[in-house]
Amino acid sequence: MSTILQRATKLGRQSFLRYSYRASSTSSKSPLNADNQPKTGVQPSYGPLGVTAALKASPNDPPPSPTIFKHEFSLADRVALVSGANRGLGLEMALALVEGGARAVYCVDLAKEPGDEWLKVRDYASKMQGTGGEGRLEYLSGSVTNQEEMWKIGELIGEREGRMDICVAAAGVLKEHTPCLEYPAKQFRDVMDVNVNGVLFTAQAAGRQMARFGNGGSIVLIASMSGSITNKDHAWVSYNSSKSAVLQMARSMACELGPERIRVNSLSPGHIYTSMTAAYLDKQPHLLGKWASLNPLGRIGRPDELRGVVTWLASDASTFCTGSDIIVSGGHHSW
Ligand SMILES: NC(=O)c1ccc[n+]([C@@H]2O[C@H](COP(=O)([O-])OP(=O)(O)OC[C@H]3O[C@@H](n4cnc5c(N)ncnc54)[C@H](O)[C@@H]3O)[C@@H](O)[C@H]2O)c1
Fold first, then answer.
1. 214 C-alpha to center of ligand 1: Å?
2. Number of domains in the chain
3. What one-character DSSP code corresponds to residue 134?
4. Ligand 1 centroid vs 109 CA: distance in angstroms?
5. What CATH number does residue 155 fall under?
């Protein structure tokens, strides 16, 4: 094709694009469309929301009902993969996703068979069917450090469910107090392998399926306040470094995956009582008062205090939030 012909074709395409743009807008200069929404970006399938819905309503319409939990926060029909979900924060967040309406939440963890705690939570969730919690918890054994295995887990879920919408990368390890100048290479590598490589492989496993099905998605990487502060008097150089890496991984992946409508955020809890922290608190009970005194609320957190934030991040209530770190630490950072 000659250069002139190429230029003419390009100009023709541009004027067609300009025409279609104008045709669908109220004013060619306004950045908003007829629904008062930005012209760019995919609009929600359930129509206008909030003030826009109120302004569009006519006096003869039937009375409106609240949409915020019915639409924006609802996880109806969504499919999720949650790593480290045999117990602890992963299991807590997996149950929250089912209660939010998710159709299926796949819990991935090391144990070949799920533990008693997981089984009890699975049965509890299944009894919610017919009351709004229509989904189910499933268990799959795997190590987040094995990239091939994690990708296969993602593919299996994709094949079974025909979609993938949510990923929570919660598997993580914290080792004993170890001074940084003596820190053994193997121990450092082991922590990085689970807390950094494993988080990437989990996000890849779900993200590849999100890209395949083209519905966008939300990936939540569980970091920690230890990614941006150092826990006073604790020699945790591997853990702290690994969590900092997760914060940057979320930002980096968010920038690459934005065009695919796949959002990536990190969630950074403060001190919460789980098996991970029990390894310290049960052996050194004085730490409870010390950790509690380090935030303005004067207490450590409960696992269920992450239910709201993970549902918000997983849902359409956070569609403009990506590349962010959400800190839930009782205000630990504020001092
Ligand atoms: N508990 C807290 O105070 C706290 C605070 C900030 C961040 N976090 C983070 O939250 C996440 C969950 O922690 P938790 O407190 O529930 O700990 P936990 O030890 O109770 O749970 C961690 C889970 O990860 C699983 N896991 C470990 N290695 C794995 C691997 N290779 N493959 C698959 N699963 C693996 C474990 O088997 C376990 O079920 C971790 O990433 C942790 O760093 C916890």
1. 30
2. 1
3. -
4. 10
5. 3.40.50.720
